[in-house]
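Here is one such tokenized protein:
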Amino acid sequence: MTRGSIVSLGLSNPAFKPQSSDNDGIRDSSPIVQGDGTASIDQLEIEAPGTTEEPTELKASLNLLHAVSLAVGQTIGSGIFVSPNIVVKEVGSVGMSLIIWTLSGILSLCGALTFCELGTMFKRSGGEYQYVKAAYGRLPSFLYLWVCGIIRNGMGCAAISLTFAKYFCDLFLDSESSEFQYYQKLTASLAIVIIVIVNSYSTKFGIYMQNVFTLLKLLALGVLVGMGFYKICADGASNLDNAMEGTVVDIGAWTDAFFASLWSYNGWNCINMMAGEIKNPSKTVPRALVLTNVIMITIYLIANVSYHVILTNEELASNQPIAMLVGAKMLEKHGSTWANIGRGFFGLSVAISTFGALSSSLMGSSRLPFIAAQEGMFPRVIALIQRKNQTPIVGLLFMGVFATIWCWPGDISQLIRYVGFLSWAWWGLCFAAVPGMRLTKPDHPRAFRVFLLFPAIACIFSLYLVVSPFIATPLNCSIWLGVMLVGIPLYYGFVDQEDKCSSWMEIALVKASKVLRADL
């Protein structure tokens, strides 16, 4: 790339500049492709528009085993260490809990197969944003960015961070003490700050850290399952007797339980995101999706059975970290020292692995504002990357700030509920877009065509997950509807009409980039 193809960043540039759906010259850099070192503000550069018409496509090199391994690794996160107690609290029985987990896996499979067709139609980065834009237009796609790109993704990162902090702080503090929540939220906020700094400075370290943390996560889950099998062999499974006893019959409670279990299945759409890198996608992608979801349903059912045979419903529904309770209870017969060792093993393993999941989530979430800025939906400065580090540093900072803010007003279960409600509202629109675009875009290339029964099931279930909260908590849902509608004047005031753009946003964010560079 020659120096003549670079446009200097000037403060007179409009804060929002509508662009085409192609790259329009802004360097499209994956948020996890970075180097070491720092760059001055002069090195935050933008390619001149028109230098390229199509985004570079990655080589199709992944086979079925690669796709399944990546998807399983990405899907297993912090949820299985925090969601089971939320599900039990809401549904009240072992049997209903296992039904919820099974149905959630089936719903995730239907959603994944539906997204598979969309992913082969629109391969540009951005996922649901690109689908909403293609099916419904620019205004709905901006509302998606406003609600999900800022609010939902920030809450999701905050929930993961609070999960990390819950396990970490419980190693040193009594979870029932009055100051525990304060230190939990403070620790969660500091974790976000540390991850933003680390990922802004060096991806090599971030990737190494993530790989190690993934191994710890799988180790903790393996030990949990092993303890469950040992408990069944040694003492039986009396906790599973009368499995449906105590079941709560309440649509609102079931909805919250679904949100909690579906939180653990988050990642079901990751294969669709990498469809362009998979060999023979029309056959490999659906096979990988089915295998991944069967594996995930099996793992989560076994993990939940392990929880239930070791802990009582009362213990599962408590506010204590459930994995730590398992470790302590299984080893307490050998004395308090061994009980503390078991508790500490699970506490440290889950805390460290969740820290890695938070790193991955923050980096992935920063991608959406980055793409939105490329296409003129957000201030263009968010799309800038450091030339030396290849880091979308402003997008990462942008998401880090919102995630930190959401750590303070909410708790984990509340954030998971809100994330679920907002996610499935927009995913439902994406599911409905598949049959819709079969009519409006019949000639659009599709490497995979989903059987329409799957989007129909996903649409019906999404409707239930959106309508049910409106019936149970109409005020909260109305507030979220109002927040979404606020995006309409924002769109027409700052995005739709270029002559109304405000350059002060660009100035403020450029100054923030300078400060961040100096700090790092």
